[in-house]
UniProtKB/TrEMBL annotation:
<dbReference type="InterPro" id="IPR057326">
    <property type="entry name" value="KR_dom"/>
</dbReference>
<dbReference type="GO" id="GO:0004316">
    <property type="term" value="F:3-oxoacyl-[acyl-carrier-protein] reductase (NADPH) activity"/>
</dbReference>
<dbReference type="Pfam" id="PF13561">
    <property type="entry name" value="adh_short_C2"/>
</dbReference>
<protein>
    <submittedName>
        <fullName>3-oxoacyl-ACP reductase</fullName>
        <ecNumber>1.1.1.100</ecNumber>
    </submittedName>
</protein>
<comment type="similarity">
    <text>Belongs to the short-chain dehydrogenases/reductases (SDR) family.</text>
</comment>
<dbReference type="InterPro" id="IPR036291">
    <property type="entry name" value="NAD(P)-bd_dom_sf"/>
</dbReference>
<dbReference type="InterPro" id="IPR002347">
    <property type="entry name" value="SDR_fam"/>
</dbReference>
<feature type="domain" description="Ketoreductase">
    <location>
        <begin position="193"/>
        <end position="374"/>
    </location>
</feature>
<keyword id="KW-0560">Oxidoreductase</keyword>
């Protein structure tokens, strides 16, 4: 809990927050190993083609097909794939209206769509509004599942229903048809895989390394030589290895490919997390600030991707995962360089989607909003407070929230999730 959250939970704080209508951040349920998928029963509604596949995924969970009066639900899941006409949108209202107020703390709302048509598009306005109404850490997503992709939903459902998606809300996710690799052990889906994480010595990168290591991957932790000490600490902690390299160096892609192929026989998951800020308004921004940000945040990724794909160092069912930013979607004063680079990261996803699908692999990105790190702790107090509160959950996210989203993309059964940019922002108002 941050300071404001502690205040809002105190006796006097509760009164002030209530009277003034101030944001009331609710402590979010976050994942711990061994935790059950959901803290209570699920209500599953709708009559489309996903009801049975969803019920199969939720085999271990108490699933109700009819609402029980007085029951608090951990999740409300509605299969809207059958809604092919706007007059049938009332089925969404019919299902949610009587039960939405019985959603428990950190509850999950999932609307499952079929992808195309006017009525299906309309569902976006519904889910995004529900996200803004939910209290007590609730989240909502719209997941479109293509015809024939019904057997590829499990990793996505597990992620979105679990506490791993605590800070993801108001997103539209598409699952396409793909050959899905079922992990032998759902608790260690990356066992036997090799993952590369750039900028892994601290902050979000260190958390990504930890989560991918927890999921069973051998993590190659990369950072600049100046971060060598912290980097080996992280690598040791996650049972991985470290690689000191400046990703902007001319020979970096070739050295990286050599390292990964010679030491590990290739790589399965590549996470481009390294990033820098050099903020100034455009008129005050010299070319060195511009060049440094574009080189680290964008061009180096393109060069590394080209080298990995050109040499086939990235193995089958591989993953390329970028770290963009809300600034790359909404733009931000003082960040023309940074926002350009981060919009470019989305461009990388778009440019590679088809090629990656052809390889049975994927490329995706996360766009974090306000995440509590050393970087954001340095932001002036008022800007920081506004950044923290301007989202449906009224709080900043944690590095682990970004890391868990990346682990979902990295999951071997997430092959149907390709070309996606998911915001990890608590449904921030900026650029929404
Ligand atoms: N913190 C946030 O709120 C936030 C929000 C949106 C996006 N992001 C993005 O998330 C990523 C991680 O952010 P963070 O807050 O953990 O930042 P951070 O500054 O704590 O970590 C970035 C890491 O990248 C490394 N790095 C920088 N240049 C490098 C280079 N040339 N070669 C190799 N490594 C290099 C740094 O040494 C550092 O360890 C960045 O891409 C950032 O833009 C962060």
């Amino acid at each position: 809990m941050d300071r404001y959250q502690r205040f809002a939970k105190s006796g006097i704080g509760r009164l002030v927050v209530g009277r003034l209508g101030l944001p009331d951040p609710y402590p979010l349920r976050r994942f711990t190993p061994g935790q059950p998928l959901l803290a209570g029963p699920v209500l599953l509604g709708g009559t489309g083609r996903l009801v049975d596949p969803v019920a199969a995924v939720l085999e271990q969970v108490d699933v109700h097909r009819e609402a029980v009066t007085g029951q608090e639900y951990a999740a409300l899941v509605f299969d809207a794939t059958g809604i092919d006409d706007t007059t049938r949108l009332r089925e969404v209202h019919e299902f949610f209206h009587p039960v939405i107020r019985s959603l428990g703390p950190s509850g999950r709302v999932l609307v499952l769509g079929g992808g195309t048509g006017v009525a299906q598009r309309a569902l976006e306005g519904f889910t995004r509004s529900v996200g803004k109404e939910l209290k007590r850490g609730g989240t909502v997503q719209l997941v479109h599942v293509a015809e024939g992709a019904e057997d590829g939903i499990e990793s996505t459902l597990r992620f979105l229903l679990s506490a791993k998606s605590a800070y993801v809300s108001g997103q539209v996710i598409r699952i396409g048809r793909a050959t899905v690799e079922e992990p032998a052990d759902w608790d260690r889906p990356l066992a036997g895989k090799v993952a590369l994480v750039t900028g892994a010595s601290r902050g979000i990168g260190a958390s990504i390394a930890e989560v991918l290591g927890r999921d069973g991957a051998h993590v190659v932790c990369l950072d600049v030589p100046a971060q060598g000490g912290d980097l080996s600490e992280v690598a040791n902690r996650v049972g991985g290895s470290s690689l000191q390299l400046d990703i902007t160096a001319a020979d970096a892609p070739a050295r990286l490919v050599d390292h990964l192929t010679q030491r590990h026989g290739g790589v399965d998951v590549v996470v481009h997390n390294a990033g820098v800020l050099r903020d100034k308004t455009l008129g005050r921004m010299d070319s060195s600030r511009w060049d440094a940000v574009i080189a680290v945040n964008l061009t180096s990724q393109e060069r590394i991707n080209a080298a990995l794909l050109g040499t086939n160092a990235l193995r089958g069912n591989g993953r390329i995962i970028g770290v963009s930013s809300i600034a790359g979607i909404a733009g931000n004063a003082g960040q023309t360089n940074y926002a350009t680079s981060k919009a470019g990261v989305i461009g990388v996803v778009e440019a590679l989607t088809e090629e990656m699908a052809g390889r049975g692999s994927t490329v995706n990105a996360v766009a974090p909003g306000f995440i509590e790190t050393a970087m954001t702790a340095g932001v002036p107090l008022m800007t920081r407070e506004v950044g923290r509160r301007l989202n449906s959950l009224s709080q900043g996210g944690l590095p682990v929230d970004v890391a868990e989203t990346i682990a979902w993309y990295a999951h071997p059964a997430s092959t149907g999730v390709n070309g996606t940019v998911v915001r990890v922002c608590g449904q921030m108002l900026l650029g929404a």
